[in-house]
Protein 1
Amino acid sequence: MVAGGGSAPDVILATEGLAIEFKGFRAVDGVSLRVKRGTIHALIGPNGAGKTTCFNLLTKFLTPTEGTITYKGRDITRMKPADVARLGLVRSFQISAVFPHLTACENVRIALQKKRGDSFDFWRSERVLSALDEEALRLLDAVGLAGFAELPAAELSYGRKRALEIATTLALDPEMLLLDEPMAGMGREDVDRIAALIRSVAKDRTILMVEHNLSVVASLSDFITVLARGKVLAEGDYATVSKDPRVIEAYIGVGHG
C-alpha cells in the first residue's frame, strides 16, 4: 500500500501528489516521493527544478496547495516545523544556526539542552553542565571536531562550521535528517570530509539531501529522485538516472554537465 501514502514499513517518509502554487506558477507539481528507512536518498535536478521548495514543504516551512506528507505512517501535512522536529524529522541547519561567539562545545551543549527541554541557561549546576559537556564532546568527536571544542565557532573554517551544524543537529537525536546542499561553497578537502561524515551519520539514520555536486551524489546515494520543472523526471540509483536521456537533456539543456 505504498501508493496510498507510504504505509509500507520500509518507507519512512512519503509524499502523495505534493504541489504548491505561487500566483499561478506550480513550483512543485504532483510530486510523489518514497524514502526508504536507513537509506541516503538524494533529490537532484537543474536550477529551478523545485528541489528547495520541495524541501521546504517536507520540513513544513511551506504549506502545500495540494497533496499529503506522511512520516512513519503519520500525516504531517499540516504540522508545524517544531512539532515535526520533535517526531524525529530534522532539517540540518534549521535548528542549529551556530552561535559565532560561543565555543564549538557550548554550541552543541545548547542543542543538548533544547533536546532535554531545558532553557538556554548557563547557571545550572556544574554536575549537570559537565554531563552535557561529556555528551557534547562525544558528538564533536563524531564529526571530527574533537580538537576544536574550545574554539569559538566564528574561528572555524567554513567546512568545520558545517560539521558543527551537523553535530548540533545530531544532538537532537533525529531519526531522519534532511540536508539542504551540505556541500555548498566548499573546497575539495571540506567536501571529502563532510561526505565521510554524512556516510558515518547514515549508519543508523535515514538521510534525504538536496545536493548540486553530482560526484558526491554518485558516491553517497542509495537512491535518487530527479526533479525538473517541479515534477519527478526520473528515479533510481545513480547508474540508472545518469544514463536516462531525459535527465541528460534536463541538465545539458540548462548548461549543467
Note: The first strand starts at residue 11 and ends at 22.
Protein 2
Amino acid sequence: MKTLLSIICNRKVKNSLILLFLLFLYVGISAFSYANSISSDISESVFRLHVLANSDSEEDQNLKYEVRDALIEYMNTLCVNVQNKEEAMQIASSHLEDFKQIAENVIFEKGYSYPVSVEIGNFSFPTKNYGDVSLPAGYYDALRVKIGKAQGQNWWCVMFPPLCFVNVSSGIVPDESKEMMKEELNDEEYSIVTKEDSSQIHFKIGLIEWFMNHNLLTAKK
C-alpha cells in the first residue's frame, strides 16, 4: 500500500515539475519573442545620429557638442522634407564626406587636430533617454561620427523620425516629431518610446535590456 502511494505521489511530483518546467519555458519563449519583436520593430523605424568624443575631458566633451550642433544644422537642411527612414539613410549616405568635412572644420576652428571618421552601420545601443523619449536597447541603423580616439562619452539623437534638437535642456521632444514617430510605430511600441505608462514601461524596457545584455536579441542585421 505504501509503495503504491509512494508511486502515486512521485508521479504527481513529476507531473507538477514537468508542468512547471513547461510553464517556465512558455513564459521564457513568450518574453523573448515579445522583446525581440519590439526591439526589431522600433529599430527598423529609427535612424540615429551618434557622436563619440575623443575623451571624457571637459574640453573634448565641449568639442563634441560643437561638432554635434554643426552636424544637426547641416542635417536639418538636408532632411527637411524626408518622409521615411530609407530616404533619410540614402541622403545621409550620399553626404558622408560633407558630414566629415563639417566635423573636421569645427575641430580645426576650435584649435584641435583630431581625425574624424564617419560611417553608416547597424550598431548595438543600450537603453537611452533623449528628452522625454526613450529608446530600448537594441541594434539600430545610425550615422556614427568618431572624434579622435572616440573613447569619451557619446551623444545621440534620432535623425528619422526627426527628434534631434540642439537645446535639450527643456527635455521635451516637439509634438510634430512625436506624431511622425507615432505613424511609424504601433500603439504598444509608441507607448514604450514615449513612456506613456511608466508603471509598465519600466518593466518592458528592462525585459528588452536583459535579453540585449545577454546577446539574445536577434534584430542585428
Note: The first strand starts at residue 47 and ends at 52.
Protein 3
Amino acid sequence: MIVLAALAGAAVAIGLVLCAREVRGLPGSRPGPARGTVAGRMLAGGGPRTAVALAVGALVFAVSRWPVAGLIAVAAVLLVPRTGTAAAQRRRTAMLEALEQWTRRLADMITASRGIEDALEASARSAPEAIAGPVSALAGRLAARTGAEAALRAFAAEIDDPAGDRIAAALIIATGRRGGGARDVLSALASLLSRDVAARREIDAERAQHRTTVRWITAFVAGFSVFAILNRSYSAPYSTVTGQFVLAIVAVVYGLALWWLHRLATMPAPGRFLDTARPDDQRGWLR
C-alpha cells in the first residue's frame, strides 16, 4: 500500500511538471524569453498565482484529507486558467498588427532627404502602443550613436518574434549598403504581415471551439469534484491508499486530455533566426 501511495503522488507530480513545461513554456526544449522582451512580459506574474495555488491545495487537503486531491488542486489553479484562454495568442496577433502598421509608416517616412536612421528615430513618436517600448528603445540607442546593426538586433530581441527578425534584417542590410530599395522591401514586409494577421484571426476563430470545450470540461470536473468531496458516502473509497492511486490516475488522464485540447487551440510560435548573442556567425548572410 505504501508503494501505491508513493506511485500516486509521483504520477501527479510528474503530470504537474510536464503540463507546466508545455503550457507555461518553462525551460526545456528552448530558452524562454527574457522578462524585458514582449513575450517575456506575457509570461510574467506567476508568483501570486503560485501562492494562491498552494493555499487552495492546503484548503482542499484540510477538507478532504486526500494528499492527491491537494496536489490536483495546486495543478488546477496553476494550469487550468492557461488552457482555456487565448490571451497570449491575441497579444501576439496585436503585436504583429502593430509591427505591420509601424513598418508601413516607416516605409513612407524614408525619402531621399531622410535616411533610414533618421526615419527610425522619428518613427518612435507615432509607434503603435503594442510595440511603443521597443521602438522607443531603438530610437534612443540610435540617438546615443549606437551602431545601427547592434541597435536593430537589440530591437529584434525585444520583439522576440521572427517577424521582428525579418524587419531588423532588412533594415540592417539597407543601412549597411546605403542603397535604395528599403521602401519597397519594408512595404512588402508590411503586406506579408497584414496577410499573416488576417490568417491568424481566422485560425483563432476556428480554434475558439476547442477552448469552449476546455471550459465546459473544466466546469463539469470542478462541479463533480466539489460534489465528491462534500458527499462522504459517495467518495469514501477514495479515502484509501488504493483510492488515492486511482484518483491520481484519473487526474493524470484528465490533465492529459486538457493539455491535448490546449495544444489543438494554440498556434505554436516559430523560432527566431536573428541571434543577438552571435552577430559574427550571421554576418555572412546579411551581406
Note: The CA atoms of residues 102 and 270 lie 21 Å apart.
Protein 4
Amino acid sequence: MWGVVAGLLSVAGAVPYLWDVWRGRTVPHRGAWLVWTVLGCTALAAQVSAGAGWAAAFLWVQAFGMLCTLGLAVTRGIGGARPAELAALGLAAAGVVGWQATASPLCATACVCLADAMGFALMLPKAWRDPWSETSSTYLLAALSGACPLLAAGDGGPELLLYPVWFVVANALVTAVLALRRSALGAVRPGARHASGDDRNCPACATRRQLASAPWSAAVLGAVD
C-alpha cells in the first residue's frame, strides 16, 4: 500500500516539474539529474532482479520521470561541465561503485546517500541564486513520497531507514531553501521586475546568461523569463 502511495506522490511531483521544464519556467541542472537518473535506474534494476512487487512502484515512476527530465535537461538545462561539478560527479560515481561493490547493506546504503547528496550539491547553488528556476512542489511531494518507505519499514534496521530518512531530509531542505529565498527576493519572478533594463542583480537573468553561453540551449531562450 505504501509503495503505491509513494508512486502516486511521485507522479504528482514529476508531472508539474516536466511541464515547467518544457515551458521554460524551470531550468534543471544536467549534472544533478544525471546523478539522480543513474541512481534511480540502478535501484530499479536491483529491485526488479530481487523480485520486488508493488513495493517497486515508487522506483518505476521515479526512474521514468528522471529519464524524461534528464532528456529535457540536455537542451533546456544548465551546468555539468565546470571543474567543481565534474568533481561532484566523480564522487557520485564513486558512491554508485561502492554501492554495487560492498557486501554490507549499511555501507551500500551510505554509498547511495553519498551519491545522491552530490546531486543535491550540484543543484542547490543554482536554486539559491535563482529559486524560481526550480519547481518547489516537486521537492515537497518527493519528501512526502520518501516518508512512505519509512512507514512501510516500521522497526527495520538502519540499512532500511537510512536512505528514506536522507531522502526526506534532503527534499525538505530544498523545499525550505526555495521558499525562504523566494520570500527574501520577492514574490514576483525577477524577470518581470526590471523595466529599467538593469538586470545585473537579477538571478533569473543570471540563469538566462548561463543558458546563452551553451549553444544547445539557445533555442529555448525565448521561453525563459
Note: The chain has one domain: 2-223.
